């Protein structure tokens, strides 16, 4: 399942396919694992591309810029624009 989320292979995931490999017994819900992988990918794109926030959101399965922002605030406690700005200041972005 993690490979499918990371690399976007095999079409959309549905709970019936993935619930056997991750769950509360593992200490983390499958939805949280998927969100974390999407956020990792989104951060990578923000740091290394010139894609808009909406484009980053769509590419990583976070739907739109609003949901991307909400997820970033939950995980990183700062908006995606702040992370992109910081990387540009440090000279890492494209």
Structure description:
The chain has 94 residues and is mostly helical. It has a single domain, classed as Homeodomain-like (Arc Repressor Mutant, subunit A). Helix 3 crosses helix 6 (80-90) and helix 4 (53-60) packs across helix 5. It contains six helices and no strands.
- Share of helical residues: 55-70%
What is the architecture at the second tier of CATH? Orthogonal Bundle
Radius of gyration: 14 Å
Helices and strands, in order, run as HHHHHH
Put simply, the count of helices is: 6
Structural class: mainly alpha
Query: Quick one: CATH superfamily?
Result: Homeodomain-like
**Largest beta-sheet characterization:** none
Strand share of the residues?
under 5%
* Nearest-integer average pLDDT: 79
Which residues form runs of ≥5 with pLDDT under 50?
13-18
Amino- and carboxy-terminal Cα gap: 31 Å
Total count of domains: 1
Shape: globular
Number of strands: 0
CATH topology: Arc Repressor Mutant, subunit A
Please give the CATH class.
Mainly Alpha
Q: Oligomeric state of the chains?
A: single chain
SSE layout and pairings?
Elements: H1 2-7, H2 15-18, H3 30-48, H4 53-60, H5 65-76, H6 80-90
Helix pairs in contact: 3-4, 3-5, 3-6, 4-5
Give a summary of the structure in a few sentences.
The protein has helices at residues 2-7, 15-18, 30-48, 53-60, 65-76, 80-90. It is mainly α.
Can you give keywords for this protein?
94 residues; mainly alpha; Arc Repressor Mutant, subunit A; HTH_AraC-typ_CS; DNA-binding transcription factor activity; sequence-specific DNA binding
